[in-house]
Design goal:
DNA-binding; seven-stranded mixed β-sheet; Arc Repressor Mutant, subunit A; homodimer; about 240 residues; 2 domains; Nucleoside Triphosphate Pyrophosphohydrolase
Chain lengths: ~240, ~240
DNA sequence: GTTTTTAGTGTAAAAATAACACATAAAATT
DNA sequence: AATTTTATGTGTTATTTTTACACTAAAAAC
């Protein structure tokens, strides 16, 4: 149900529901929970605010929705402005609306999460000087309801990781099984059995094993894999796709 | 990240992200996907609009967020105004923001779903004359993006039904196993095996079998059950709660 | 050549899920 | 009084999925 404008209001309910005043308009913000992975740990990107209110405190990056864009576009724009990155997986999580969440002024904020492979993307954005990656468990206190946003985003990420090949967004194109397992262990925040993990992943049949090895971490070297997007798409179309670890 | 108001803007990024104009303010609506169950079928409550735009067409019920309330409160108020009901389970689903979703004017809408036991609640709300329950598969065409909202709400309901005792919100206090199975079959949109269903539900150990029987449907009568909320709360605190059908 | 480190591999037990059919109660009908 | 009708209620077995678990191999470092 949207708007009634200057139309005559016929009933009491119209008066209550469909009548609005100019002063009921609000500012809509987007805040981005940016997850990154650096081959070992799941991290989150935060910035130190150099503007009021709460100047000097850490917060999520965010910005305001403009009249000529939708929320997905706003989130993409905000991320791009800060990091210079585009073509990043983003997903809307939840809309926060407590009346006094921003003590300065009534603002409603829509939270988005983004997934970035830390090593492959060098930021060329502005403002990178005041931004920093934090391990999930050592993030500083944040302003407003941003910590609540992060908690919900983590829960969403955990669920998505089991039903979509979303994890691969966080990895470089070529990765080892160990890196993939590290990633899932970081996301789910629990240890996994190596053999069971590999068996499960292989049974999904969406990875291609390369002849190439990664020699950076072990003396023996570990085979590299790539995600086979086509195979995955086909699978989704046929059976769906979902697994459990 | 919220607002910058009249504060001096120090960097280019501040200018891009933290500067806003009065004209970037928008109207925020809530739209309610109201699910009901009448002992056999899952239904949805729609109203025929008697106001512009799209007067005469069917739509979800909705209204505008007011300055002094949060979104949960707005959704509760809208539902109460239309149906007279209070104390209803509601949950935020997703925020819709396509620029031209409402052709008349820029409006962003936050969708909520609500669960109601159709038989136990007699509506004393205003406007009930233009509202009607529809079976899920025979709902009429709806305005704007309301059909998309419903699709997403159904998906959410299906997920919730497996991790929360949310189904019981849709049933009268006392219900038969058959009614419970009908409900889950409606929500999941698939047939379930009677014996496996009963075994599974019993293994969850959150229902109390009464000595009383429901005689309305069978000559033999079927035992009535009630949901044991305390037992459930305890279980959640200990093990969590989640099942599969 | 000895040590160190990570990669890589298979099986068996346990648990969860899926498949499946008939007897019973009680009212309604004849 | 006997028969028909209708929905209830109940257990076991096979299949699938998940979990637990330990050793060898490769290569570099010393």
């Amino acid at each position: 149900m949207e708007k009634a404008k200057n139309v005559e209001l016929t009933t009491e309910i119209d008066r209550q529901l469909n009548f609005y005043q100019k002063e009921d308009q609000v500012l809509l913000a987007v805040d981005c929970i940016i997850f990154g992975f650096d081959k070992t740990n799941l991290k989150i990107l935060l910035i130190k605010r150099n503007f009021e209110p709460e100047k000097g405190k850490w917060s999520l990056i965010g910005g305001f929705l403009k009249k000529n864009e939708n929320l997905d576009q706003a989130a993409t724009r905000v991320l791009n402005t800060l990091t210079g990155l585009s073509d990043i997986y983003m997903e809307q999580v939840y809309t926060y609306s407590k009346v006094d969440r921003d003590p300065g002024q009534r603002t409603i904020s829509v939270a988005y999460f983004a997934l970035i492979d830390v090593d492959s993307h060098q930021f060329d954005g502005i403002q990178i000087d005041s931004a920093r990656w934090f391990d999930l468990d050592e993030a500083p206190n944040l302003i407003f309801d941003h910590e609540e946003m992060i908690r919900k985003a983590i829960a969403r990420l955990q669920r998505r990781a089991m039903t979509m090949p979303i994890g691969f967004e966080l990895l470089p194109e070529k990765f080892t099984m160990r890196q993939l397992q590290n990633l899932y262990e970081s996301i789910l925040d629990k240890k996994l059995d190596k053999r069971n993990f590999i068996n499960k992943i292989n049974s999904l049949d969406v990875l291609v094993k390369l002849d190439e090895k990664d020699m950076t971490v072990s003396r023996k070297g570990a085979y590299l894999y790539v995600f086979d997007k086509e195979k995955y798409e086909k699978k989704v179309a046929e059976d769906g796709f979902s697994f459990k670890l």
